[in-house]
Automatic annotation (TrEMBL):
It comes from the Bacteria. InterPro entries: Aminoglycoside_PTrfase, Kinase-like_dom_sf. Keywords: Transferase. It comes from Nitrosovibrio tenuis. The keyword Transferase applies. This is Phosphotransferase enzyme family protein. SUPFAM superfamilies: Protein kinase-like (PK-like). GO terms for molecular function: transferase activity. Residues 44-258 form the Aminoglycoside phosphotransferase domain. The keyword Methyltransferase does not apply.
């Protein structure tokens, strides 16, 4: 991951005192006068790495204040929400091998709504995908996708509710993505109507309403999943966790794989062996693997297409690549 070095954290900065007196004691480390180097991480929020130059102790600070579209109340809500989500998942068993959720160390509403987390070492899913494409390291990607399937199946099965999925919520998010794409000129009104037609046909399918709600991570991007040795899976960024269809997460992984292979190998179909392996591994964590696989794959095209729409709206990709994603989203949804 690319970290941008920004300099040293001043001892006069209130955040320095917070780290020294409130956070470092939580870690059980004795640092009298830490000297924090500061690095900015690529992120949609304001996320920074603080590294003590003496001990190499690392801490992550995620600031919700000042994030575009977040007012003060929304920033506070998002800070508290992620803090509580992390603590909840750790309390139900995601705090050790092989399934690990990053440990929150504290939060402070007065210091620009900051959430402080431990720094976790690991190799991201993004790196494994790129290596499989550029260096032929396919076996490693197959293995890590199996580990991720195990993590997600455990998360979903452990948090399943008696209530069934409300597919209308996903349709509302679908509409928000279309509105954004139309607002930036990447979709015309004729195409918006075409996508609405796809949405309505999916809404009529009984399979989209029948499964039980689970806690879904909701942002399983390749940057948010880290791997260690063996089955170790380390998951970060739980700001968007919510009750949803389990295939929201599974379809997000599928869509991200398609995106990475389209971007780096210029052919999303080269992702198919990895997608099939991931889905089959996910299904093995149910009493009837074949029935689970059939149920999941019926719903995958909608959620994979939703993921492609989500990626296509990003300002950091150019219009040509956005168009490729939109055309693939049509194929998936059709």
């Amino acid at each position: 991951m690319n970290y941008k070095y920004l300099g040293h954290l001043s001892q006069d900065d209130p955040f320095y005192g917070y780290l020294q007196h409130d956070i470092i004691p939580v870690l059980g480390v004795n640092l009298n006068s830490p000297d924090f180097r500061v690095y900015r991480l690529p992120s949609s929020n304001h996320v920074y790495l603080y590294e003590d130059s003496h001990s190499q102790l690392r801490i992550i600070g995620k600031f919700f204040g000042g994030v575009p579209l977040f007012g003060p109340e929304a920033a506070l809500h998002h800070m508290e929400r992620e803090y509580n989500n992390l603590n909840y998942l750790r309390s139900i068993g995601f705090a050790g091998y092989p399934h690990y959720v990053v440990r929150p160390l504290g939060r402070n509403a007065h210091l620009n709504k900051v959430l402080v987390e431990e720094y976790c070492y690991g190799t991201s899913l993004a790196e494994f995908i790129v290596r499989a494409i550029s260096e032929g390291e396919r076996d490693a990607l197959f293995q890590k996708l199996g580990s991720l399937a195990y993590f997600l199946a455990t998360l979903h099965n452990r948090t399943a509710r008696d209530s069934t999925v409300d597919f209308n919520k996903d349709c509302e998010y679908f509409d928000r993505l279309l509105e954004h794409l139309a607002g930036t000129g990447r979709l015309g009104q004729d195409e918006v109507r075409e996508f609405h037609g796809f949405r309505d046909r999916w809404r009529e399918k009984p399979c989209m309403w029948e499964d039980r709600e689970v806690l879904a991570h909701s942002d399983v991007t390749p940057a948010n999943v880290l791997f260690g040795d063996g089955l170790w899976v380390i998951v970060i960024d739980l700001e968007r966790m919510k009750l949803a269809d389990r295939v929201l997460d599974v379809g997000r992984v599928v869509g991200e794989l398609q995106h990475y292979f389209l971007k780096h190998a210029h052919d999303r179909w080269l992702a198919e062996p990895f997608i099939g392996h991931f889905l089959w591994e996910y299904a093995c964590h149910f009493p009837n693997r074949d029935a689970a696989f059939a149920s999941i794959t019926r719903r995958i095209p909608f959620y994979a297409g939703l993921t492609l729409l989500r990626i296509a709206r990003n300002s950091w990709i150019n219009d040509h690549y956005s168009r490729l994603l939109l055309d693939d989203a049509k194929k998936m949804l059709r």
